[in-house]
Amino acid sequence: MVNRLVLECVVVKPVQNKTSPSGIPHATFLVEHRSFQIEAGLKRQAWCKISVVASGLALQPIAKQLVIGSKINIAGFISQHESKNGLAKLVLHAEKIDFLTHGE
């Protein structure tokens, strides 16, 4: 089954670093995407905020450089996470992060 998302976006909340009980590092942060897309022949604005998790040692050096305002391109897959109060949200699990520009 295909589950692939590529998103050009801006970091809007700082990175939070955690390590799982099994020792895997996880960097989580929030990004925002804004663009214009063509739908049914008409131009429309597309906008979203999505949480991102970058897991494993390979992405940690990049995640450490992320600051609010960093423009990045992220490729990965999406999965549903549930908060402690039972609310579901989609999270982008990054497999590749490329800088377009560094932030502030």
UniProtKB/TrEMBL annotation:
Coiled coil: none annotated. The keyword DNA-binding applies. SUPFAM superfamilies: Nucleic acid-binding proteins (SSF50249). One of its GO terms (molecular function) is single-stranded DNA binding. InterPro entries: NA-bd_OB-fold (IPR012340), Primosome_PriB/ssb (IPR000424), Prisomal_replication_PriB (IPR023646). One of its GO terms (biological process) is DNA replication, synthesis of primer. It comes from the Bacteria. Keywords: DNA replication, DNA-binding, Primosome. GO terms for cellular component: primosome complex. Homodimer. Interacts with PriA and DnaT. Component of the replication restart primosome. Primosome assembly occurs via a 'hand-off' mechanism. PriA binds to replication forks, subsequently PriB then DnaT bind; DnaT then displaces ssDNA to generate the helicase loading substrate. Involved in the restart of stalled replication forks, which reloads the replicative helicase on sites other than the origin of replication; the PriA-PriB pathway is the major replication restart pathway. During primosome assembly it facilitates complex formation between PriA and DnaT on DNA; stabilizes PriA on DNA. Stimulates the DNA unwinding activity of PriA helicase. Belongs to the PriB family. This is Replication restart protein PriB. It comes from Thorsellia anophelis DSM 18579. The lineage of its organism: Bacteria, Pseudomonadati, Pseudomonadota, Gammaproteobacteria, Enterobacterales.
